[in-house]
Amino acid sequence: MFTGIVETVGSIIDLKNDKDNYEVTIQVEDKADFLSDCQIGDSISCSGICLTVIEFDSNKNWFKVGISIETLRRTTIEKMWTSLENAHKINLERAMGSGNHRFGGHYVQGHVDTIAEVVEAVEEGDSVNFKYKLRDIENVKYIVEKGFITVDGASLTITNVDDDKGTFGVSMIKHTRDVLAKRPIGTFINVEVDVTGKMIAKQVDLYMKKYTK
Q1: Distance between the two ends of the chain, CA-based, in angstroms?
Q2: Cβ neighbours of 135 (radius 10 Å)
Q3: Is residue 72 domain-resident?
Q4: Within a domain: residue 103?
Q5: 211 part of a folded domain
Q6: N or C terminus of the chain: which is more exposed, having fewer CB within 10 Å?
């Protein structure tokens, strides 16, 4: 479980992109203690994808994760994590701890629902308004204005939704943009919708099927 408050970014330093055994090694940047309490089997949110640590070096500040075929289908990995030359940056967040910390984002599972293309970025004062177009438009039914959404691991507030076009928007202040890895127009991001909305939709659907026959 995560909060959607990105801690730092990392870079891919090694890649084994065999679908039967897809592994990625990530170098953590600008946070020397990120892996200080890391254990094999821990979960780390990598641009919104909950991935399992299979190897790490806390002194050199890198970790390796294994990636399943299902994860490849759902996420931006095959589009964006395909080579070492593209210097793709990854948003990183450790799983929630049990200490006395304020909960700043929303409940994020790291279970990506789909991907979306960055189609617009419009400056407004110190903020930038981004628009994204969903690959799988059926997910738009779970996206509501002023609700939660996770974009590449970041907990954000939805500012607008177009159900017909399958697009939604968010607004990012400068601080958020400075923390997150940059995603130019034409690139893709991972999307996790609010799990509460999915649960409600499922229950309503089952109720309607049962009582409207």
Answers
A1: 38
A2: 16
A3: yes
A4: no
A5: no
A6: C
Residue owning tokens 């200080």: 36
Distance, CA of 25 to CA of 186 (rounded, Å): 25
Determine the residue type at 32. A
Task: Indicate the Cα dihedral angle 185, 151, 111, 198, nearest 10°.
Answer: -110
User: How many domains would you assign to the chain?
Assistant: 2
- Which residue reads 């890649």 in tokens? 15
Is the separation of the CB atoms in 94 and 44 below 8 Å? yes
pLDDT digits (tens, 9 = 90+) for 17-62: 887 889 999 999 988 999 999 999 999 999 999 999 999 999 999 9
What CATH number did the domain enclosing 37 receive? 2.40.30.20
Q: Which domain holds residue 157?
A: 114-201
The last residue of one of the domains, among 94, 129, 160, is 94
Residues 141 and 186 occupy one common structural domain: yes
Tell me the per-residue pLDDT of 70-91, one tens digit each, with 9 for 90 and over: 999 999 998 888 777 666 899 9
Question: Distance (Å, rounded) from C-alpha 64 to C-alpha 40?
Answer: 10
Task: Note the pTM of the prediction, 2 decimals.
Answer: 0.92
Evaluate whether 77 touches 69 at the Cβ level (below 8 Å): no
Q: How far apart are CA 106 and CA 153, in angstroms?
A: 11
